[in-house]
Automatic annotation (TrEMBL):
Residues 1-192 form the Heme-copper oxidase subunit III family profile domain. One of its GO terms (biological process) is aerobic electron transport chain. It holds the Pfam family COX3. It is found in: Cell membrane. It comes from Patiriisocius marinistellae. Keywords: Cell membrane, Membrane, Transmembrane, Transmembrane helix. This is Cytochrome oxidase subunit III. Its main location: membrane.
Length: 192
């Protein structure tokens, strides 16, 4: 395929999708580096053995998977120009994202209730790593929630018509990425 061919709209779409791809690759590498550092740090003598993830993280896993499903349904509805169904699924995705964030902070409080601290003299390298990784992921979830709000606003203004759904596609790709990233992080933290 010749990437210099096509009209300006096609070239712009390709460029924006490629920029998204490069961004996701760099985010993946950042989290790969953090998880590698986590593995190496497990050899430290002050590493906590027997640390268990809080119950709220398990529930948040189900919520984030459900939010990916609702975003897929929203994207399909918008592409089919079923505006009311698209809006319903977009709002559901946003609400599920907020619930996910709430559950992450609930998980932090459950960790603290169990006597593990993230910073200070009573903290450990184990909990500091978990705190760092989860907070970085939450920062990306926040960006995803902002993207969803922009998509909701644009959809309300009927900007996604006649196949012009690039904004929805890019936001959905990012949201699915942060969802998959949480699944990876959860499984990584659970099994290592």
């Amino acid at each position: 395929m010749n990437y210099t061919q096509g009209n300006e709209i096609e070239k712009t779409r390709r460029a924006k999708k490629n920029m998204m791809l490069f961004g996701l690759i760099s985010l993946s590498m950042s989290f790969a580096g953090l998880t590698s550092a986590y593995i190496i740090s497990k050899e430290r003598p002050d590493w906590l053995s027997g640390f268990e993830l809080p119950q709220a993280f398990f529930i948040s896993l189900a919520i984030i998977i459900l939010s990916s499903l609702t975003f897929m349904l929203a994207k399909t509805a918008i592409k089919n120009e079923d505006n009311s169904k698209g809006m319903l699924f977009l709002i559901a995705t946003f609400v599920l994202g907020i619930v996910f964030v709430y559950l992450q902070f609930l998980g932090f409080s459950q960790i603290i209730e169990n006597g593990y601290y993230f910073t200070g003299s009573e903290s450990s390298i184990t909990t500091s790593f978990i705190y760092l990784v989860v907070l970085l992921h939450l920062a990306h979830i926040t960006v995803g929630l902002i993207c969803i709000l922009v998509v909701i606003y644009n959809h309300y203004k009927l900007k996604y018509v006649k196949g012009n759904t690039l904004g929805v596609e890019l936001a959905a790709t990012f949201w699915h990425f942060v969802d998959i990233l949480w699944i990876y992080l959860f499984l990584f933290l659970y099994f290592t």
